[in-house]
User: Which sequence fits this backbone?
């Protein structure tokens, strides 16, 4: 595992130490409107090294993980005199770590960047592993690069101001890590009520989840094979997310992944014999925690067209990561459109739509 990941309850001390050790002459901090309001003042009040940092703030929300915001960041770096020795700190959720990571990977062909995730989702998933990018033409993460942050500083202190919806969103990626890692990790998560979680005391559960991802990324950093396991729930989840964005009612990424996992476990049942009682238990947990995603069979062609743009596809067939059982991963599964439509029908039944 090459990327440095720090778990700490004193993030200001960690970033100050990083800046002192790296000797970066100029620091930029990327925030969105919400992290500028809720998180930046906390870190600035405790840090010595960030006093002269230049703050770049973009609009919040995944609809703004786009070329206009990226261009704004490049402009601010250029006008602020950023050089290859400068440091960019991405202080925010996955929208900021993805887009800031891509800005860091591309500005002057690459400057140093550090991710300081402020949502549960970015802490357990987006900030680590080097997938950076932006949405483009209505498709999720359509343009980007693999480039790991020089360091990731993870702290639950940032979660104090996080709406419960965002905690639930991050928990969906933890459930995904549980499903691919195996029964022990999965059982601990599925028997837990995320809404009553005390994150101050959960740094160790978080670390366990991050390490599921890090083990896989270390084995296959550029997603030539087993990294596709981390994409469980995303072929259909990203289709739901793009569909929702296109119809002007965006949903949090983790919700899309939760619903995508239910549909892809349904496909796993239909084609690989994934135990149906396990599917029902998972679907009930997701329905109780996230509610339903509502659509009709008239939306199927649009959803399937979106799935044809999944980055795992290498031909006209749609590529899925499925499971034979919890922890038993099958990558590169292809399913025909009739099976996908059946899975969408069953998903709507399971979600009482
Ligand atoms: N690169 C990867 O491996 C990877 C993995 C998973 C998800 N992602 C991407 O991450 C994005 C989703 O990330 P997200 O769920 O963190 O969304 P987000 O970054 O949009 O944050 C969600 C909301 O919470 C606000 N927020 C952030 N931190 C806060 C805090 N501490 N207090 C109060 N409000 C706060 C944000 O302003 C935003 O409104 C998607 O674009 C997804 O595609 C990438
Ligand atoms: O790190 C990975 O690999 C993942 O697939 C993690 C996903 O949770 C994440 O949403 C990722 O951004 C999806 O990537 P994409 O290649 O399907 O756009
Ligand atoms: Zn994801």
Assistant:
């Amino acid at each position: 595992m090459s990327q440095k990941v720090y778990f700490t309850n004193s993030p200001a001390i960690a970033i100050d130490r990083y800046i002192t050790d790296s000797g970066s002459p100029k620091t930029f901090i990327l925030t969105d409107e919400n992290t500028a309001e809720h998180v930046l003042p906390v870190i600035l009040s405790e840090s010595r090294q960030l006093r002269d940092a230049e703050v770049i703030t973009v609009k919040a929300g995944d609809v703004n993980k786009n070329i206009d915001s990226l261009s704004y960041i490049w402009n601010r770096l250029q006008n602020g005199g950023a050089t290859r020795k400068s440091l960019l700190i991405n202080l925010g959720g996955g929208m900021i770590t993805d887009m800031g990571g891509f800005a860091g990977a591309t500005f002057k062909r690459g400057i140093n960047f550090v991710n300081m995730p402020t949502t549960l989702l970015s802490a357990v998933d987006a900030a680590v592993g080097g997938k950076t990018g932006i949405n483009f033409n209505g498709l999720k993460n359509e343009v980007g690069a693999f480039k790991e942050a020089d360091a990731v500083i993870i702290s639950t202190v940032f979660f104090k101001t996080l709406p419960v919806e965002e905690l639930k969103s991050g928990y969906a990626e933890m459930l995904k890590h549980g499903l691919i890692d195996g029964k022990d990790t999965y059982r601990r998560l599925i028997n837990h009520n995320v809404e009553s979680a005390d994150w101050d005391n959960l740094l160790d559960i978080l670390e366990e989840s991050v390490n599921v991802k890090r083990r896989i990324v270390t084995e296959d950093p550029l997603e030539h094979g087993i990294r596709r396991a981390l994409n469980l729930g995303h072929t259909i989840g990203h289709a739901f997310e793009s569909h929702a964005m296109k119809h002007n009612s965006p949903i949090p990424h983790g919700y899309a992944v939760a619903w995508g996992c239910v549909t892809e476990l349904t496909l796993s049942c239909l084609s690989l014999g994934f135990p149906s009682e396990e599917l029902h238990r998972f679907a009930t947990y997701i329905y109780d925690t996230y509610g339903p995603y509502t659509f009709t069979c008239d939306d199927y062609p649009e959803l399937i067209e979106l799935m044809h743009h999944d980055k795992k596809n290498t031909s006209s067939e749609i590529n899925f990561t499925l499971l034979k059982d919890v922890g038993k991963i099958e990558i590169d599964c292809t399913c025909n459109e009739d099976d996908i439509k059946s899975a969408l029908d069953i998903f709507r039944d399971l979600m009482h739509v």
Remarks:
- The longest strand covers residues 139-146.
- The pocket of LNCXM5UN (ligand 2) is lined by residues 125, 129, 131, 140-141, 173, 223, 227, 230-231, 234, 311 (CB under 6 Å).
- The two ends are 43 Å apart (CA to CA).
- The chain has two domains: 4-161, 165-350.
